[in-house]
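We were asked to recover a plausible sequence for a given structure. The inputs and outputs are reproduced exactly as logged, with field labels preserved.

PROBLEM: sequence recovery
POSITIONS: 554
GIVEN STRUCTURE:
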């Protein structure tokens, strides 16, 4: 049996456009002599649809498109993900389902049994879990049919077994020749290598059968989907593999388990660059933008953001703007221009010193008797944000925020200033990793001058300012932030690893007191296990103080 895996990049809710993508892949699969084609989870709906599922008309319209899938299945088996109605009198209204069509007829409907509720997932909000194992016999082949999370209830994969049942064990008991898993599994760096492939190997060993993993690809808001659909054998070999971060159709034969194999690099830096490019490109395309503008300070963050933008949408569609202020160095403006020149993007310089002096002068009476402080620094940042948003409005360019995860974590950024923008491209990239990306881009393309990478980072909002005047060294800061934000370590646990208690306490204090800023930040492209935004929900107003011992004092 020849099987095709249709790795598509859907636009959420664009039923017609997504069905047309699927139809083109079905036609191609037929020309390749395929008997079956498999598409990802919620194939023509797109994942995650979120509260669009609360609109009955949205679900009703999606179900009407099943007819198109039926027509597509003439002469080929077709597996796709969809939303179906829960016909029971109790429970949620809908199921997350797998549909199996053959020759214009629905021959199997399987409901997702395990509904994830952690990090970026909230499927229990919308769906009722399925109760029965997904199984179908087709052309003499016993197929196990699962949807994404259904294979994740394994020891060593999640922090604990979250669910009372294990669909994989149930299918092992039934006995299957092939286990199919349609998925929309969001990306973070290292996930494929460190989690997904070990998971697939574990499942294949458990059922003693090949696992066919068909994953969504593309960017949907903050989430990026890697694709890299694959077939894993019981003894651990990956014998079929689709491209990462691209739509693809790969074909294999179940008789000898031979098929298409696209190489995939497992280098973390290159992988994150590719992910950011896909996330930015799709965010702009799916939101209706085709051009971008970036405030370029001469620092490493804006340089990397400009490079990612040029790689994603084309250098001819990117504009860099230098915004020198009263404390900007000549070298910084030179560095910003040099990056723009090497990239070949549009370039403009709009000084803000006159604007700044006008604002300070107009506030002189109100601020009488008060010494300059961070207020005046923030005025500069907000004036830059004002100018950049004016360019965005007038020229129809999406403003890209250039701040990194380290700054966003501790609030080293200005509301309505450098936080302005439609998307925070580096908002989930720690500063130390930004430097790694910069070095890789310099090595491969020569776009970033050495001085941009080696000079001490500075916001240049006061004389002789350096980031390390306010923050710990970024190597230390990022290490503590990873332990606190991604691994959920407590102050005591972090200190027990050898970190200075006062430093850790101050970092945690800065993180906790700046939640209000992060709530007002642009969407952040998720590339780590825990990003700010949809997958991290912390109250702005709360009284819990991490690191303070409990109990009563005498």
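RECOVERED SEQUENCE:
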């Amino acid at each position: 049996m020849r099987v095709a895996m249709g790795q598509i990049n859907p636009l959420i809710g664009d039923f017609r456009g997504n069905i047309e993508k699927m139809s083109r892949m079905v036609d191609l699969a037929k020309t390749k002599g395929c008997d079956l084609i498999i598409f990802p989870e919620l194939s023509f709906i797109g994942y995650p649809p979120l509260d669009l599922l609360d609109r009955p008309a949205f679900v009703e319209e999606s179900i009407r498109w099943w007819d198109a899938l039926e027509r597509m299945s003439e002469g080929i088996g077709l597996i796709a993900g969809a939303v179906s109605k829960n016909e029971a009198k109790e429970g949620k209204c809908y199921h997350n389902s797998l549909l199996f069509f053959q020759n214009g007829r629905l021959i199997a409907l399987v409901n997702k049994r395990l509904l994830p509720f952690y990090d970026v997932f909230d499927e229990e909000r919308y769906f009722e879990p399925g109760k029965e194992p997904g199984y179908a016999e087709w052309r003499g082949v016993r197929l196990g049919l699962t949807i994404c999370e259904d294979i994740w209830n394994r020891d060593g994969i999640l922090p604990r077994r979250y669910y009372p049942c294990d669909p994989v064990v149930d299918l092992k008991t039934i006995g299957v020749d092939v286990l199919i898993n349609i998925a929309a599994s969001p990306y973070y760096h290292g996930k494929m290598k460190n989690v997904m492939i070990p998971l697939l190997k574990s499942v294949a060993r458990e059922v003693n059968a090949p696992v066919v993993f068909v994953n969504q690809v593309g960017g949907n808001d903050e989430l990026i989907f890697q694709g890299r659909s694959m077939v894993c054998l019981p003894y651990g070999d990956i014998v079929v593999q689709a491209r990462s971060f691209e739509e693809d159709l790969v074909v294999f034969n179940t008789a000898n388990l031979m098929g298409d194999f696209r190489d995939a690099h497992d280098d973390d830096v290159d992988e994150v660059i590719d992910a950011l490019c896909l996330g930015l490109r799709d965010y702009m395309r799916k939101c209706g933008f085709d051009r971008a503008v970036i405030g370029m300070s001469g620092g490493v963050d804006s340089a990397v953001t400009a490079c990612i933008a040029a790689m994603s949408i084309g250098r001819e569609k990117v504009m860099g703007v230098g915004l020198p202020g009263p404390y900007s160095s000549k070298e910084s403006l030179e560095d910003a221009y040099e990056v723009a020149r090497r990239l070949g993007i549009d370039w403009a310089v709009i000084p803000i010193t006159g604007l700044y002096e006008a604002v300070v002068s107009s506030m002189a009476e109100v601020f009488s008797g008060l010494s300059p402080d961070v207020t005046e620094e923030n005025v500069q940042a907000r004036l830059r944000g004002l100018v950049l948003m004016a360019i965005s409005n007038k020229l129809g360019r999406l403003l890209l925020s250039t701040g990194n995860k380290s700054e966003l974590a501790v609030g080293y950024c200005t509301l309505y200033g450098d936080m302005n923008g439609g998307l925070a491209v580096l908002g989930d990239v720690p500063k130390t990793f930004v430097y790694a990306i910069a070095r890789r881009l310099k090595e491969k393309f020569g776009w970033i001058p050495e001085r941009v990478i080696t000079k001490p980072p500075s916001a240049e909002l006061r004389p002789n300012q350096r980031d390390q005047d306010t923050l710990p060294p970024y190597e230390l800061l990022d290490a503590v932030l990873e332990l606190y934000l991604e691994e959920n370590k407590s102050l005591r646990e972090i200190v027990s690893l050898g970190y200075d208690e006062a430093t850790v306490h101050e970092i945690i204090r800065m993180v906790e007191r700046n939640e209000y800023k992060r709530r007002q930040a642009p969407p952040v492209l998720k590339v780590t296990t825990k990003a700010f935004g949809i997958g991290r929900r912390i109250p702005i107003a709360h009284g819990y103080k991490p690191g303070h011992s409990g109990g009563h004092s005498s």
